[in-house]
Amino acid sequence: MDASVPPSAPEPVVDIRGLSSVFTTPEKRFVVHENLDLAVWPGEVLSIVGGSGTGKTVLLRQMLGLEQPARGKISVLGQPVSEIGKAGAASRIGMLFQHGALFSAFSVLENIAFPLRELKTLPAALVREAAMVKLQMVGLKPEDADKMPSDLSGGMIKRAALARALVMDPPLLLLDEPTAGLDPESSDGFVTLLRSLHRDLALTVVMVTHDLDTLFELSTRIAVLADRRVIVTGPPKEVIAFQHPFIHDFFLGERGQRAMELLREYPFAV
After folding, report:
1. What is the pLDDT of residue 269?
2. What is the arithmetic mean of pLDDT over 63-75?
3. Domain 14-92+171-265 adopts which CATH fold?
4. Inter-residue long-range contacts of 261-268, CB under 8 Å, 24+ positions, other chains counted
């Protein structure tokens, strides 16, 4: 049986078929993805890894509808992304960008509330209440609501951006390098938060990360991008055993000892 398809699988939350991504400059034409297929199943944490230039973040942006592939189809919850529209995408998909992407002129609470104000017709009091619930859900305090992004630590920026990604209660959450730039203590706390939210909110998560600790602690399945496509998907132990130069270098090169330690530490990864 294909390891990417769970037994008695429901419909995938994300279904990518025959995707090709092409970028052109005056000097060159770059084919990033070619006939790429990938399915994301309900309730899983699928992590995408790959070398530089393999289009990991591009793939997330295409799932969100921010970029269009040259060919192929992407469906989210059974509907083509190209037909969902801005409001529909926001209600289905939350996106945590690598550096948070908070609006510098808005307070923390205004940042969190922004999707509700832009895309819903709700009383101001209800918008504020919903934003405050999400602010506290991610571990921020009520007194943080009126702070500006410039007053926040890196970990607080990530948490505020996560609250904004979740304010519309989307079933799908996309994470682009969620622990990048965080010190070890902040990173550990943020991963613990993500794990709790994944469980408590019954989220489906797609994550791009190069950090092995984050990868092994959160992932239920890994997809490896190489050679312009997904070359293997499966639990970490199966992926590490797959014979490919990138997989050997990424998991079994200088970081090989740490990868083996993490496999033993997180039994679900086996």
Report:
1. 45
2. 92
3. Rossmann fold (3.40.50)
4. 262/212, 262/213, 262/215, 262/216, 262/217, 262/236, 263/216, 263/236, 263/237, 265/216, 266/216, 266/217, 268/220, 268/235
